[in-house]
Amino acid sequence: MPPAAPDDPRHWLALLDAGAWFARLSPALRDALMGAARVRTLAAGQALFRRGDAPCGLYAVLEGAVRVSGTSGRSDDSREVLLTLLEPPHWFGEVSLFDGQPRTHDAVAEGATRLLHVPQPALARLLADAPARWRELGLLMSHKLRLAFVALEEAASLPVAQRLARRLVMMAEGYGVRRDAHQGMHRRSLAVSQEQLSMMLAVSRQTINQNLKELEVMGVLRLNRGGLEITDLPALQRLAGYGPAQAPTGV
């Protein structure tokens, strides 16, 4: 049998299996999701959905990244608040599945992006066929809820330098969605700009730049065009306030 083409969901099984959530699913649910899924592509800057849109299903990032953001401030003086950048093999979109309410944030392709899409009607059918599957979707949502609680606590109690260190560690771990992160393997190169970090942490770009340069002088990371490279992860973890086994994964 010839290998599956990129527009065939089966082409991406190895990538999806690198994700902790998908790898733990029962064979029946994995097959049901893949059987209902379609591959979609988005151009850079193209919106997948906007805040207030109706529920449209479950997604996994296959290539590229999805920018999840909202706005704050008055309508005449609003600014973007960047929650996160979702990268492969991150699954998302399950919150609206549970409550049937509109989307809470904007999801926009950060660059050319490929996604796996399980439409809402297909999801409803496979969950109706086996209600026990709701638990698996609940675990996906609880992962994000844990991370949200961590972010709220950090924003209220930690100085910017420590919050930045923690966010970089979490990004190196893929926010706990990758299986290799659970085995102590982390990315060292992060494609995130200083502007994006400033929006994630709700501080000025100048503050982020100052803190990153201090980390660079300390030998913890190296700044480059389009992102940064973590050169001393244990030191970054210590600055974040936890050791290698203590970083929150949300699971």
Describe the model:
Residues 244-251 have low confidence and may be disordered. It is built from eleven helices and eleven strands. A hairpin with a 2-residue loop joins strand 10 (221-224) and strand 11. Helix 9 (194-201) crosses helix 10 (205-217). Helices cover 42% and strands 21% of the residues. It has helices at residues 13-17, 20-24, 27-36, 95-99, 120-129, 134-157, 160-172, 179-182, 194-201, 205-217, 233-240; strands at 38-42, 47-49, 57-63, 66-72, 79-86, 91-92, 106-109, 113-119, 189-190, 221-224, 227-230. A four-stranded antiparallel beta sheet has the order 1-8-3-6. A four-stranded antiparallel beta sheet has the order 2-7-4-5. A three-stranded antiparallel beta sheet has the order 9-11-10. The longest helix has 24 residues, at 134-157. The protein has 251 residues and is an alpha+beta fold. It has two domains: 1-157, Jelly Rolls (Sandwich), CATH 2.60.120.10; 159-251, Arc Repressor Mutant, subunit A, CATH 1.10.10.10.
